[in-house]
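Marked as duplicate of an earlier ticket. Keeping the data here for the record.
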Amino acid sequence: MLDPNSSNIELPPIPGKRYFTIGEVSELCLVKPHVLRYWEQEFPQLKPVKRRGNRRYYQRHDVEMIRSIRSLLYEQGFTIGGARQQLANDGGVKQEKQRDEQRPRADSIRELRGELEQVLAILSR
């Protein structure tokens, strides 16, 4: 269900904390707590840490994921299933992108290691 009042609303900045309660996340994402609990069941990527008494503690990446879900559902008009599929596709793209970014780093590390071995050989003389 689209909420016409929710589109184009600027969300508050995410504070630099490690963990957030469900109430804090609710305020940061402008989504009610019962909706967050429902989304946990529908989106496998959303897994807050549960502590004593089954209390939920969300991390920054969880809050960012919730904001993405909120955008897909409320602003872009996706269904739950469509949003789930979109997030799964984006996750695959992100993993491929990370692998591609790691390749040049590995080449740079090999090159640096070779240079350091040359420096060590010179210093050993």
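See parent ticket for discussion. The longest strand covers residues 49-50.
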